[in-house]
Amino acid sequence: xxxxxxxxxxxxxxxxxxxxxxxxxxxxxxxxxxxxxxxxxxxxxxxxxxxxxxxxxxxxxxxxxxxxxxxxxxxxxxxxxxxxxxxxxxxxxxxxxxxxxxxxxxxxxxxxxxxxxxxxxxxxxxxxxxxxxxxxxxxxxxxxxxxxxxxxxxxxxxxxxxxxxxxxxxxxxxxxxxxxxxxxxxxxxxxxxxxxxxxxxxxxxxxxxxxxxxxxxxxxxxxxxxxxxxxxxxxxxxxxxxxxxxxxxxxxxxxxxxxxxxxxxxxxxxxxxxxxxxxxxxxxxxxxxxxxxxxxxxxxxxxxxxxxxxxxxxxxxxxxxxxxxxxxxxxxxxxxxxxxxxxxxxxxxxxxx
Length: 353
Description:
It holds the Pfam family Sigma54_activat. The chain is of the alpha/beta class.
């Protein structure tokens, strides 16, 4: 197991958050991580788990914002066969699957009131009832939670005070990265993406990229920075300097933003949006061709398997077709044909300096 911390901190505020995280890893209490979107809360939560006594067990993530009260109960605590229409077999929930490990509740502030009450009962003594079950169960699970909201300001209006105090045995505030943080983050991301793309990058190039990336404002913080660095690798060329490739990557992002605002090169929002989506699909298929494996694709893209399967299904590719170069090439050819009318527009954007 890798014992390094993936959370990057150079500024005083983020270093303070990392120090609190190290204390949390040494303990076994519930932790609430607070900070803006894309600041790295999920990475810090996984770091805490990987450096805790539970590291040999799994850490599972639940996106609370995506679950209704009913779905939350079934996903968290599982259900028995016949519990509701369509429940043809019993299925364990996240709590049972994460037994001995950790459960990361992302966007905990979006949890509906009814679901908050059910979570509170589990936190009190570790007991729960599967949906439709007739027997109480118990699970030893550490809860790590994250939110971009100020839960304390909405206690007993939008969030239960008793649940808040159960979760926040230790609260860690993760601030957005400063320029100093961004420089180091960009260098680390460059090395990580280079390995994923099998595109070696020299230390000098990574350093120069870090300097360039640190001069940009990222509303999406680390998440947006990662996208920017990945775009750099997509447009990187031996015929360009690091600065020219970075400008081309930024121009590609600008094109997408213009399309989303309806200000594309031909004034047609729908055409530009479709072109951008098709380009993304073509880049996705390049990764498919290189990996030929859903699990490897999930690892390389740092996305879940369900996400990979949904992208494949959208392109008409079944998991069993991943070994067929002919099927993948056929899908790529269709997308290249749809992008042909936009070729000059993309080349113009990429060649701007």
